[in-house]
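User: Please predict the structure of the protein below. I'd like the answer in C-alpha cell form so I can feed it into my own downstream comparison script.

Assistant: Understood. Taking the following sequence of 163 residues as input:
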Amino acid sequence: MKCPQSLLKSLMTDMKLEDAHASFIKVMTETMKILFVCTGNSFRSAVAEALLKKFRSDFVVESAGTEPASHIAKSAKELLKKENALGNLKSEPEGIEEKDVEGYDRIIVMKEGHKQVIIERWSRAKNKIQVWNIDDPIFLPLGSDKKIFAKIKGKVLEMAKTL
C-alpha cells in the first residue's frame, strides 16, 4: 500500500479536497467500497468488478447496469477465464436500483451518460463518480471485445495500484 501522503495525493486527483480527505480516512480505517456501472452489466462493469476483485481482495467491489441485460456476455466469461479471474465474475447482471449507490466510496462509470443517470437519481453521489469513457463492445465491430477488455484491465490495474 502507498504511504498516506501519496495515497491522499492520488485521491485528490479526481476529487474535491473534502471528498478526497473523506476517502483517505475511509481507506485508512475501513474497507474501500467501489461500484462499477455500465448499461447492461453484462461486459464492461462486470469485467471491471471481476478484475479488481482479483487484484484487490481487500476492497468491496460490485457492479451494476442502468438497464441490466438478461445474462453475462459469453466473451466476458472467456476473457476472464484466460486471466484466471472467472471465479470473481457475478452469475448474472444486476440493476443499479438494487444498490446503495450513495454508500460507495468510488463509482466508476463507463460513459458520461451513466454518470448523468446516477446524478439524476442520487445527487449526493456526484463527487464520487469517475468516467472512464469506455465504449460498449456490443456496438463495435466483431472482435472489439478483446480491445475493450484490455482497456478495462489497464484502468483496473492502475486503480489497484493507486488506491
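That's the full C-alpha cell string. Helices lie at 4-12, 17-29, 44-55, 74-82, 112-121, 144-162.
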